[in-house]
Protein backbone atom coordinates (compact mmCIF):
# COMPACT_ATOMS: atom_id res chain seq x y z
CA UNK A 1 0.00 0.00 0.00
CA UNK A 2 1.18 3.50 -0.71
CA UNK A 3 1.70 5.60 2.39
CA UNK A 4 3.37 8.87 1.51
CA UNK A 5 3.31 11.06 -1.52
CA UNK A 6 3.60 14.79 -1.60
CA UNK A 7 1.63 16.95 0.79
CA UNK A 8 2.34 20.14 2.62
CA UNK A 9 5.25 20.77 4.91
CA UNK A 10 5.15 22.06 8.45
CA UNK A 11 3.31 21.08 11.58
CA UNK A 12 -0.40 20.52 11.08
CA UNK A 13 -1.97 21.56 14.35
CA UNK A 14 -5.62 22.51 14.32
CA UNK A 15 -9.19 21.74 15.33
CA UNK A 16 -9.68 20.14 18.71
CA UNK A 17 -9.17 21.65 22.09
CA UNK A 18 -6.31 24.15 21.87
CA UNK A 19 -2.86 24.01 23.39
CA UNK A 20 -2.57 22.42 26.80
CA UNK A 21 -0.45 19.97 28.72
CA UNK A 22 -1.00 16.23 28.64
CA UNK A 23 -1.54 15.05 32.17
CA UNK A 24 -3.78 12.27 33.45
CA UNK A 25 -7.03 12.81 31.54
CA UNK A 26 -7.87 10.45 28.72
CA UNK A 27 -6.88 12.08 25.41
CA UNK A 28 -9.29 13.75 23.00
CA UNK A 29 -8.85 13.60 19.22
CA UNK A 30 -8.36 16.42 16.79
CA UNK A 31 -11.59 16.87 14.90
CA UNK A 32 -12.78 17.08 11.37
CA UNK A 33 -14.47 20.40 10.49
CA UNK A 34 -17.81 18.66 10.95
CA UNK A 35 -16.89 17.32 14.37
CA UNK A 36 -15.34 20.58 15.47
CA UNK A 37 -18.47 22.50 14.43
CA UNK A 38 -20.75 20.35 16.54
CA UNK A 39 -18.51 19.62 19.52
CA UNK A 40 -18.61 21.43 22.83
CA UNK A 41 -15.14 22.30 24.01
CA UNK A 42 -16.06 21.40 27.58
CA UNK A 43 -17.16 17.88 26.65
CA UNK A 44 -15.44 15.19 28.70
CA UNK A 45 -12.34 13.88 26.91
CA UNK A 46 -12.79 10.40 28.33
CA UNK A 47 -13.01 7.42 26.05
CA UNK A 48 -16.13 5.88 24.54
CA UNK A 49 -16.76 3.51 27.42
CA UNK A 50 -14.92 5.25 30.25
CA UNK A 51 -16.38 5.68 33.69
CA UNK A 52 -18.96 8.37 34.32
CA UNK A 53 -17.47 11.75 35.18
CA UNK A 54 -19.02 14.36 37.50
CA UNK A 55 -19.41 16.79 34.60
CA UNK A 56 -21.48 14.24 32.74
CA UNK A 57 -24.43 14.92 35.03
CA UNK A 58 -24.67 18.49 33.74
CA UNK A 59 -25.21 17.54 30.10
CA UNK A 60 -28.76 17.51 28.71
CA UNK A 61 -30.64 14.27 28.18
CA UNK A 62 -31.53 13.47 24.56
CA UNK A 63 -34.90 14.57 23.26
CA UNK A 64 -37.78 12.17 22.87
CA UNK A 65 -38.15 10.92 19.34
CA UNK A 66 -41.46 12.74 18.92
CA UNK A 67 -39.63 16.07 19.17
CA UNK A 68 -38.58 15.70 15.55
CA UNK A 69 -42.17 15.75 14.32
CA UNK A 70 -43.90 18.88 13.08
CA UNK A 71 -47.22 19.78 14.76
CA UNK A 72 -50.06 17.69 13.44
CA UNK A 73 -47.82 15.01 11.91
CA UNK A 74 -47.74 11.52 13.34
CA UNK A 75 -45.66 8.53 12.28
CA UNK A 76 -47.49 5.76 10.46
CA UNK A 77 -45.04 3.19 11.86
CA UNK A 78 -41.94 3.11 14.10
CA UNK A 79 -39.79 3.48 10.97
CA UNK A 80 -41.83 6.22 9.38
CA UNK A 81 -38.89 8.26 8.08
CA UNK A 82 -38.68 8.56 4.31
CA UNK A 83 -35.08 9.14 3.16
CA UNK A 84 -34.51 12.22 1.07
CA UNK A 85 -31.59 10.81 -0.93
CA UNK A 86 -30.69 7.52 -2.63
CA UNK A 87 -27.81 7.05 -0.22
CA UNK A 88 -30.08 7.47 2.79
CA UNK A 89 -32.62 5.13 1.23
CA UNK A 90 -29.88 2.56 0.72
CA UNK A 91 -28.84 2.93 4.35
CA UNK A 92 -32.34 2.09 5.58
CA UNK A 93 -32.51 -0.95 3.34
CA UNK A 94 -29.09 -2.34 4.21
CA UNK A 95 -28.60 -1.54 7.88
CA UNK A 96 -30.55 -2.43 10.98
CA UNK A 97 -32.56 0.54 12.18
CA UNK A 98 -33.08 0.87 15.94
CA UNK A 99 -35.91 3.12 17.04
CA UNK A 100 -34.91 5.51 19.79
CA UNK A 101 -37.81 4.64 22.17
CA UNK A 102 -36.54 1.02 22.21
CA UNK A 103 -33.36 2.24 23.92
CA UNK A 104 -33.50 2.67 27.69
CA UNK A 105 -30.78 5.19 28.53
CA UNK A 106 -29.29 5.04 32.02
CA UNK A 107 -26.23 7.28 32.38
CA UNK A 108 -23.85 9.42 30.37
CA UNK A 109 -20.45 7.74 30.23
CA UNK A 110 -18.45 9.90 27.81
CA UNK A 111 -18.39 12.41 25.02
CA UNK A 112 -16.28 13.90 22.28
CA UNK A 113 -16.36 15.47 18.85
CA UNK A 114 -19.10 13.16 17.68
CA UNK A 115 -21.47 13.76 20.59
CA UNK A 116 -22.58 12.04 23.78
CA UNK A 117 -22.15 8.37 24.72
CA UNK A 118 -24.72 6.77 27.00
CA UNK A 119 -24.95 3.40 28.68
CA UNK A 120 -28.32 1.85 27.88
CA UNK A 121 -30.24 -1.35 27.37
CA UNK A 122 -31.80 -2.53 24.13
CA UNK A 123 -34.48 -5.18 24.72
CA UNK A 124 -32.65 -6.12 27.91
CA UNK A 125 -29.15 -6.17 26.40
CA UNK A 126 -26.53 -3.70 27.73
CA UNK A 127 -25.37 -1.40 24.93
CA UNK A 128 -23.49 1.84 24.35
CA UNK A 129 -25.35 4.58 22.46
CA UNK A 130 -23.36 7.25 20.63
CA UNK A 131 -25.66 10.23 19.95
CA UNK A 132 -24.89 13.12 17.61
CA UNK A 133 -25.13 16.56 19.18
CA UNK A 134 -26.80 19.64 17.61
CA UNK A 135 -28.19 17.49 14.83
CA UNK A 136 -31.68 18.83 14.09
CA UNK A 137 -30.48 20.92 11.14
CA UNK A 138 -27.55 18.80 10.04
CA UNK A 139 -26.06 20.03 6.76
CA UNK A 140 -25.85 17.48 3.98
CA UNK A 141 -22.07 16.85 4.31
CA UNK A 142 -22.45 16.10 8.02
CA UNK A 143 -25.39 13.78 7.42
CA UNK A 144 -23.47 11.99 4.69
CA UNK A 145 -20.56 11.54 7.07
CA UNK A 146 -22.85 9.96 9.64
CA UNK A 147 -24.37 7.67 7.02
CA UNK A 148 -20.94 6.66 5.75
CA UNK A 149 -19.80 5.76 9.23
CA UNK A 150 -22.89 3.60 9.76
CA UNK A 151 -22.37 1.85 6.43
CA UNK A 152 -18.76 1.13 7.29
CA UNK A 153 -19.55 -0.11 10.80
CA UNK A 154 -22.30 -2.43 9.60
CA UNK A 155 -19.83 -4.42 7.51
CA UNK A 156 -17.28 -5.03 10.28
CA UNK A 157 -17.42 -8.44 11.97
CA UNK A 158 -14.42 -9.51 14.04
CA UNK A 159 -13.88 -10.69 17.65
CA UNK A 160 -11.53 -7.75 18.27
CA UNK A 161 -13.81 -5.07 16.81
CA UNK A 162 -16.51 -3.51 19.00
CA UNK A 163 -19.77 -4.93 17.63
CA UNK A 164 -22.08 -2.57 15.75
CA UNK A 165 -25.72 -3.38 16.58
CA UNK A 166 -27.65 -0.76 14.67
CA UNK A 167 -28.44 2.91 14.22
CA UNK A 168 -31.26 5.42 14.43
CA UNK A 169 -31.46 7.89 11.55
CA UNK A 170 -34.17 10.12 13.03
CA UNK A 171 -33.37 13.69 14.14
CA UNK A 172 -32.96 14.79 16.88
CA UNK A 173 -31.75 11.39 18.13
CA UNK A 174 -29.50 10.09 15.38
CA UNK A 175 -27.23 7.57 17.06
CA UNK A 176 -25.07 4.49 16.68
CA UNK A 177 -25.60 1.52 18.99
CA UNK A 178 -22.75 -0.87 19.85
CA UNK A 179 -22.07 -3.57 22.39
CA UNK A 180 -21.06 -2.33 25.84
CA UNK A 181 -17.61 -3.59 26.81
CA UNK A 182 -17.32 -4.25 30.53
CA UNK A 183 -13.90 -3.02 31.66
CA UNK A 184 -13.83 0.18 29.65
CA UNK A 185 -10.80 1.52 27.86
CA UNK A 186 -7.22 0.30 27.97
CA UNK A 187 -6.32 3.86 29.02
CA UNK A 188 -8.41 3.45 32.18
CA UNK A 189 -7.33 -0.14 32.87
CA UNK A 190 -3.66 0.85 32.77
CA UNK A 191 -4.42 3.21 35.66
CA UNK A 192 -6.28 0.72 37.86
CA UNK A 193 -5.33 -2.47 39.67
CA UNK A 194 -5.58 -5.72 37.73
CA UNK A 195 -8.25 -8.18 38.80
CA UNK A 196 -7.69 -11.93 39.36
CA UNK A 197 -6.41 -14.11 37.86
CA UNK A 198 -4.06 -11.36 36.67
CA UNK A 199 -1.77 -9.39 38.95
CA UNK A 200 1.01 -6.86 38.50
CA UNK A 201 4.68 -7.80 38.69
CA UNK A 202 6.50 -7.07 41.94
CA UNK A 203 9.91 -7.61 43.49
CA UNK A 204 9.23 -11.30 44.03
CA UNK A 205 7.41 -12.11 40.78
CA UNK A 206 8.40 -11.17 37.24
CA UNK A 207 5.12 -12.23 35.63
CA UNK A 208 6.63 -14.59 33.10
CA UNK A 209 8.80 -11.93 31.48
CA UNK A 210 11.95 -13.28 29.84
CA UNK A 211 15.20 -11.97 31.27
CA UNK A 212 14.16 -12.21 34.91
CA UNK A 213 14.03 -8.44 35.51
CA UNK A 214 11.04 -6.14 35.16
CA UNK A 215 9.80 -2.86 36.63
CA UNK A 216 7.48 -3.21 39.60
CA UNK A 217 3.84 -2.75 38.62
CA UNK A 218 4.34 -3.95 35.04
CA UNK A 219 1.59 -6.09 33.58
CA UNK A 220 2.50 -9.80 33.26
CA UNK A 221 4.00 -10.96 29.97
CA UNK A 222 0.97 -13.08 29.01
CA UNK A 223 -1.44 -10.17 29.45
CA UNK A 224 0.78 -7.79 27.47
CA UNK A 225 0.89 -10.32 24.63
CA UNK A 226 -2.90 -10.73 24.80
CA UNK A 227 -3.45 -6.99 24.40
CA UNK A 228 -0.92 -6.63 21.57
CA UNK A 229 -2.27 -9.65 19.70
CA UNK A 230 -5.90 -8.63 20.15
CA UNK A 231 -5.30 -5.10 18.93
CA UNK A 232 -3.08 -6.36 16.12
CA UNK A 233 -5.66 -8.87 14.89
CA UNK A 234 -8.40 -6.26 14.89
CA UNK A 235 -6.29 -3.75 12.98
CA UNK A 236 -5.06 -6.40 10.51
CA UNK A 237 -8.72 -7.18 9.78
CA UNK A 238 -9.48 -3.51 9.13
CA UNK A 239 -6.47 -3.01 6.89
CA UNK A 240 -7.18 -6.17 4.88
CA UNK A 241 -10.73 -5.04 4.07
CA UNK A 242 -11.60 -4.04 0.51
CA UNK A 243 -11.15 -1.12 0.48
CA UNK A 244 -8.94 -0.96 3.60
CA UNK A 245 -10.32 0.81 6.67
CA UNK A 246 -8.03 3.25 8.46
CA UNK A 247 -8.76 3.97 12.10
CA UNK A 248 -7.02 7.39 12.09
CA UNK A 249 -7.32 7.90 15.85
CA UNK A 250 -5.81 4.74 17.29
CA UNK A 251 -4.86 5.13 20.98
CA UNK A 252 -5.33 3.37 24.30
CA UNK A 253 -8.58 5.26 24.91
CA UNK A 254 -10.03 3.58 21.79
CA UNK A 255 -9.14 0.02 22.76
CA UNK A 256 -11.75 -1.50 25.07
CA UNK A 257 -11.20 -4.52 27.32
CA UNK A 258 -13.83 -7.10 28.25
CA UNK A 259 -13.97 -9.21 31.44
CA UNK A 260 -11.12 -11.40 30.17
CA UNK A 261 -8.98 -8.40 29.16
CA UNK A 262 -9.59 -9.15 25.49
CA UNK A 263 -9.32 -6.15 23.15
CA UNK A 264 -12.22 -4.59 21.26
CA UNK A 265 -11.26 -1.71 18.96
CA UNK A 266 -13.81 1.09 19.06
CA UNK A 267 -14.65 4.65 18.05
CA UNK A 268 -14.38 4.87 14.33
CA UNK A 269 -15.70 8.43 14.39
CA UNK A 270 -12.49 9.49 12.66
CA UNK A 271 -12.07 6.37 10.56
CA UNK A 272 -12.63 6.38 6.82
CA UNK A 273 -12.92 3.79 4.14
CA UNK A 274 -9.70 4.14 2.23
CA UNK A 275 -10.51 5.63 -1.16
CA UNK A 276 -9.41 3.98 -4.36
CA UNK A 277 -6.65 6.55 -4.42
CA UNK A 278 -3.73 5.32 -2.40
CA UNK A 279 -3.75 7.64 0.58
CA UNK A 280 -5.40 10.33 2.70
CA UNK A 281 -4.63 13.81 3.90
CA UNK A 282 -5.78 15.63 7.02
CA UNK A 283 -4.26 15.52 10.51
CA UNK A 284 -7.04 13.75 12.39
CA UNK A 285 -5.85 11.94 15.47
CA UNK A 286 -4.40 12.77 18.88
CA UNK A 287 -0.97 14.36 18.96
CA UNK A 288 0.91 11.91 21.20
CA UNK A 289 -0.17 9.03 18.95
CA UNK A 290 0.07 10.80 15.58
CA UNK A 291 2.58 9.61 12.99
CA UNK A 292 5.03 12.20 11.58
CA UNK A 293 3.37 12.16 8.16
CA UNK A 294 0.01 12.95 9.77
CA UNK A 295 1.49 15.80 11.80
CA UNK A 296 2.95 17.22 8.58
CA UNK A 297 -0.39 17.05 6.75
CA UNK A 298 1.09 14.68 4.20
CA UNK A 299 -0.78 11.89 2.53
CA UNK A 300 -0.80 8.77 4.64
CA UNK A 301 -1.97 5.20 4.67
CA UNK A 302 -2.16 2.15 6.91
CA UNK A 303 1.32 2.69 8.35
CA UNK A 304 0.06 5.76 10.24
CA UNK A 305 -2.07 3.37 12.32
CA UNK A 306 1.02 1.20 12.85
CA UNK A 307 2.88 4.16 14.36
CA UNK A 308 -0.03 4.82 16.73
CA UNK A 309 -0.06 1.15 17.71
CA UNK A 310 3.63 1.35 18.57
CA UNK A 311 2.81 4.11 21.06
CA UNK A 312 0.06 1.90 22.52
CA UNK A 313 2.52 -0.98 23.05
CA UNK A 314 4.79 1.49 24.84
CA UNK A 315 1.85 2.51 27.05
CA UNK A 316 1.21 -1.11 28.01
CA UNK A 317 4.88 -1.61 28.88
CA UNK A 318 5.20 1.55 30.98
CA UNK A 319 1.62 2.31 32.13
CA UNK A 320 2.44 5.96 31.48
CA UNK A 321 1.10 8.76 29.29
CA UNK A 322 3.28 9.39 26.23
CA UNK A 323 5.09 12.74 26.26
CA UNK A 324 3.53 13.62 29.61
CA UNK A 325 3.83 17.27 30.62
CA UNK A 326 4.47 18.46 27.07
CA UNK A 327 2.13 20.68 25.07
CA UNK A 328 0.79 19.61 21.69
CA UNK A 329 3.19 21.94 19.90
CA UNK A 330 6.13 20.63 21.93
CA UNK A 331 5.24 17.04 21.03
CA UNK A 332 4.94 17.90 17.34
CA UNK A 333 8.27 19.74 17.32
CA UNK A 334 10.00 16.87 19.12
CA UNK A 335 8.63 14.26 16.72
CA UNK A 336 9.17 16.25 13.51
CA UNK A 337 12.27 18.36 14.09
CA UNK A 338 14.13 16.14 16.53
CA UNK A 339 12.75 12.82 15.27
CA UNK A 340 11.92 12.11 18.90
CA UNK A 341 9.93 9.12 20.06
CA UNK A 342 8.85 7.47 23.29
CA UNK A 343 11.68 5.42 24.79
CA UNK A 344 11.26 1.70 25.42
CA UNK A 345 12.15 0.98 29.08
CA UNK A 346 15.63 -0.37 29.68
CA UNK A 347 14.41 -3.55 31.38
CA UNK A 348 12.50 -4.44 28.20
CA UNK A 349 15.50 -3.77 25.95
CA UNK A 350 17.65 -6.16 27.99
CA UNK A 351 15.06 -8.75 29.00
CA UNK A 352 12.87 -8.87 25.88
CA UNK A 353 14.89 -7.28 23.06
CA UNK A 354 12.60 -8.62 20.31
CA UNK A 355 9.62 -6.74 21.75
CA UNK A 356 11.70 -3.59 22.22
CA UNK A 357 12.82 -3.84 18.59
CA UNK A 358 9.21 -4.27 17.45
CA UNK A 359 8.17 -1.05 19.21
CA UNK A 360 11.08 0.80 17.62
CA UNK A 361 10.15 -0.51 14.16
CA UNK A 362 6.54 0.65 14.59
CA UNK A 363 7.83 4.11 15.54
CA UNK A 364 10.13 4.55 12.55
CA UNK A 365 9.96 8.09 11.16
CA UNK A 366 9.55 6.78 7.62
CA UNK A 367 6.31 4.82 7.11
CA UNK A 368 8.02 2.58 4.57
CA UNK A 369 10.21 1.18 7.36
CA UNK A 370 7.31 0.24 9.62
CA UNK A 371 5.87 -3.29 9.65
CA UNK A 372 2.35 -4.21 8.65
CA UNK A 373 -0.02 -5.55 11.29
CA UNK A 374 0.41 -9.03 9.82
CA UNK A 375 4.15 -8.67 10.44
CA UNK A 376 3.50 -7.35 13.96
CA UNK A 377 1.43 -10.44 14.77
CA UNK A 378 4.12 -12.72 13.39
CA UNK A 379 6.76 -10.98 15.51
CA UNK A 380 4.65 -11.30 18.68
CA UNK A 381 4.15 -15.02 18.07
CA UNK A 382 7.93 -15.45 18.08
CA UNK A 383 8.62 -13.54 21.31
From TrEMBL:
List keywords of the entry alphabetically: ATP-binding, Kinase, Nucleotide-binding, Serine/threonine-protein kinase, Transferase
Q: Which InterPro entries match?
A: Kinase-like_dom_sf (IPR011009), Prot_kinase_dom (IPR000719), Protein_kinase_ATP_BS (IPR017441), Ser-Thr/Tyr_kinase_cat_dom (IPR001245), Ser/Thr_kinase_AS (IPR008271), Ser/Thr_Kinases-Pseudokinases (IPR051681)
Q: Where is the Protein kinase domain?
A: 103-383
Task: Please list the GO terms describing molecular function.
Answer: ATP binding; protein serine/threonine kinase activity
Polar residues composition bias: residue spans: 33-58
For this protein, the record's SUPFAM superfamilies field holds: Protein kinase-like (PK-like)
Q: Which CDD domains match?
A: STKc_MAP3K-like
Instruction: One Pfam family, please name it.
Output: PK_Tyr_Ser-Thr
Amino acids binding ATP: 130
| Gene3D superfamilies according to UniProt | Phosphorylase Kinase, domain 1 (3.30.200.20), Transferase(Phosphotransferase) domain 1 (1.10.510.10)
Q: Which domain of life is it from?
A: Eukaryota
* Disordered: region residues: 21-96
Q: Which family does it belong to?
A: Belongs to the protein kinase superfamily.
Protein name as it appears in the record:
Protein kinase domain-containing protein
The source organism is Triparma verrucosa
Amino acid sequence: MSDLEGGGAGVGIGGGSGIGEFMHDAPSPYMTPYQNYYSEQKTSPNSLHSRKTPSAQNLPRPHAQQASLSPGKRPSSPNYHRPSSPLHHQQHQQHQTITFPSLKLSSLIGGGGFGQVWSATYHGTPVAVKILTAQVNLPTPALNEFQSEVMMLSHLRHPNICLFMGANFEAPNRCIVTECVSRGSLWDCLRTKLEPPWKECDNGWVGGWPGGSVAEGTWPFGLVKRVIEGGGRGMAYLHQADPPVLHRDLKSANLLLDDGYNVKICDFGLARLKAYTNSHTGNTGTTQWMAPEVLMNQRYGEKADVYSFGVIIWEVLTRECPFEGMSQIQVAVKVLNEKGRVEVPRWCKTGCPKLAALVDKCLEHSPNLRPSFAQILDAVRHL
